[in-house]
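Archive maintenance. Older records in this collection stored only the sequence; we are now back-filling the structure field for every entry so that each record is complete. The fields below show one back-filled record exactly as it appears after the update. Entries are processed alphabetically, and rRNA processing protein RRP7 is next in the queue.

ARCHIVE ENTRY
Title: rRNA processing protein RRP7
Organism field: Ceraceosorus bombacis
Length field: 409
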Amino acid sequence: MARSKSKTASRAEDDVRSSSASRTVSKKNKGAAGFATVSGFRVLRLGSQVLYIRIHQEKDRVEATTSQTRTLFVVNLPTDTTDRHVRAIFAKAGPIEVVQFWDQRPGSVSEDEEGMDVGGPSQEFQEQAGSLTSVATSSDAGKRKGGKKSSGPPAIVPLPPSDPRHPHRLHRTSVSAHVTFLDASCAQRALSLPDSTAWPDAWADIRNAQNAAALAAMDDSHPHGQKKRPGSAGQAALEAGQSVPPLGLEYFISRHRAQRPTPDAITKHVDSVIAHYTWVKEHPQAKGKGGVPVASYGPDGEMLDEDGFTIVQRGGRFGRTAEGGADASGFKSGPAARGSTVRVASKFMTQQENGASGSGKKKSKELENFYRFQIREKKREQLASLREQFEKDKLKVEKLKKSRRFNPY
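Back-filled structure field:
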């Protein structure tokens, strides 16, 4: 009995010692002041994000326009903010027409995309291919009979996007946005929202739909062959191809994989580009009567011949669209386009020669003393002629003096 009592007493002492040791460890993890620490760093949790909002104002315009009165300017948004987050924050204010982030406005380039090719053909190649496609389509338009469509160039298969969050890419720090409501009263209601509100989970519906789809795939009793209509907005968005943008480690893993496309995707893209280029080379624009065939196009869309010279086009009475109309690339597609060639320049030179030989045609007169530089040049020429005449008169007077025939009175 005595031995059993001593054993129980020793066990109790060990329990007390272990509990006290665990308390000291927890105190060490929490730090001297009771704060949680990780590897010597104090953990500071931030549970709020401060946004600054006001009605949008343009500096150039004194009076506020209709779009300004219903546009809200929001500052200090988190980097992972999406269109869904902004709509959820201001959902109580009213319907939103459009949300435009500052770093995603037209013409802006993100830091990740700056200086690198994000996939797909270059802009110059796309513009040139688009102009060639439109010209080829317009030239073949007159050959269509019975509503039959002519075969166009093969489409270019683009590379997959290198950003796994596309089109909801990460923003820069403290990004701003313009939130345009359908009505000006909605913007005023947005200014009257409570000062504190919870950050919305904008992707909860799609996340729930993904979990439900995963459970349905694991369930053996669920019929796999039948397709059900989406029962919620999240299921409809999931079937439309939307997904939750990745964050954290998942984002970096997805980005690493996206920036290294599979050989199959690269092969399809390269084959489509080569096929498109081959088709364009094999189907040049047909030349008109006495015209020059179009070999390629310049950076501004001008037509070039085989030697690289720009082909001059006839303008017509009201410009290029006077006869035959114009296609999407800005060039005429009718008979006037097929007859627009370099021979227009030779015709113009012939008219000038006929005018110079004494024909009754009126010559184009240049405006005199219209610009300041013309007035300055004219005065400079007059002064030079006066100075020259003065020097001539001096020489003449000297000669008369030497000949003793000078009689000033």
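Update note: The first strand starts at residue 37 and ends at 38. The mean pLDDT is 71.
Entry marked complete.
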